[in-house]
């Protein structure tokens, strides 16, 4: 199998509007369409290794179930598995797919079978991995115990709680019964797998209880006889659902796959290939740049770049919005909407930030971001642009304008870090913590208190009266949690991004600027104190943002 798919095919990502709610998906591969549905409380990211392996045989479409990942929650007071299946069916229709094969794991397996039951015209075959079956129904009291709400706490303790909560469910079943009799019959997954699951749980902190509980309320065994589409109910030793195999009716086709995940993937692929229909898959849909504030991806040579855009129909020069880094455009929605009131705006997540994923082994750099921006402008066929650079992204705006002066009409800087330093390299190296995953979960607290202390002191690690910031601190747990969820997505780049940007001689470079520039600042901005010096270098007076 590895020889067949040594070079993974490009991955395309996108959003579908389902009754006013966005459904997020990732497409990879070639061949007949294969819809893939993840377990709770994860997202489609857990399916990416399978997409890369199976892409030589199928065009895979992995969906974030509503309320997980980047898919929005459905407006259903009592959400059911059927509701989730209907949303996925709508997505399949919008992608113009037919006779799809469906692969689902745990919660996704329940949705897959419900999809086949309710929409048999769309499905040709279903393969499940751990179809949810429960010997007796969960009471509402038991569900409330099992599905603990996540409430952001001022000290960041909810982050480590989520880490150990997700880790525990791979050690005990159920997770909240840490007894020898409940010990899981499987190896603990590697730290990166657990970290991804924990961060996805935190991402869905406001919705996961409603979506996850639908799997426990689902009919399970009671619906099997009603499904007319061929279904193979797969299971593996070591899985929490393996003990349910004897409960299946004789009419159900059950297949036991190997305990080893890689070996199981090989056999699952062989099973899917035996049932593959002869059907063509339509080409990837290109993003639409509309007038309403919306989000999508543009495909570049390095992968999918997440963007938000608005007012693209207005006849004026578009503004490229660059977010404060490390960070992402999801933290700047009010700013983006305000800019859209003036004209077209395209906001992008730069590599290693937000939802523009840069592999952990690759390095961020000003050059990489400048090249990314240039390629995106070519992809969307913009001519001249304006740039709005929030905070630390000023470095990208400066370098882009110096390299491509013919492409830039005007730059607005918001509180750029135009600060003088005696030893810029040493300062940058010591500024930010390494938040790479740790078995004890300490990386979560490192990030939380780095964010929190930045609101209280400058620099954050000089905790003295002389270094105290004189603005109302933004340390509300909900505000910090929203930022943490974005920053935790790509932990390998967090410290490096800070180093790269703080090492950049921004103040010196601003003196060389001859582009039309504007400077705005808000007292609460991290680098608001540097606005006056930036204004002198740019020969403009700073204005209130």
Task: Describe the structure in your own words.
The chain has 545 residues and is of the alpha/beta class. The chain has 17 helices and 16 strands.
Please compute the radius of gyration using only Cα atoms. Answer: 25 Å
For the largest sheet, list the strands in their spatial order. 1-2-4-3-5-6-7-8
Shape: globular
Helical/strand content category: alpha/beta
Count of DSSP H/I helices: 17
Q: What is the rounded distance between the termini? A: 55 Å
Q: Which ranges are low-confidence, i.e. pLDDT below 50, for 5 or more consecutive residues?
A: 1-5
Largest sheet: 8 strands, mixed
Please report the total strand number as a whole number.
16
Task: Report the β-strand fraction as a percent range.
Answer: 15-25%
The amount of helix comes to 25-40%
Mean pLDDT: 95
Topology:
Layout: E1 11-18, E2 21-29, E3 33-37, H1 48-54, E4 59-63, H2 81-94, E5 100-105, H3 107-118, E6 123-129, H4 140-146, H5 157-168, H6 191-203, H7 208-217, E7 231-235, E8 253-256, H8 261-274, E9 294-300, E10 303-310, E11 319-322, H9 333-340, E12 345-348, H10 366-379, E13 385-390, H11 394-403, E14 408-414, H12 424-431, H13 442-454, H14 477-487, H15 491-503, H16 506-511, E15 516-521, H17 531-538, E16 543-544
Parallel strand pairs: 3-4, 3-5, 5-6, 6-7, 7-8, 11-12, 11-13, 13-14, 14-15, 15-16
Antiparallel strand pairs: 1-2, 2-4, 9-10, 10-12
Helix pairs in contact: 2-3, 5-6, 10-11, 12-15, 13-14
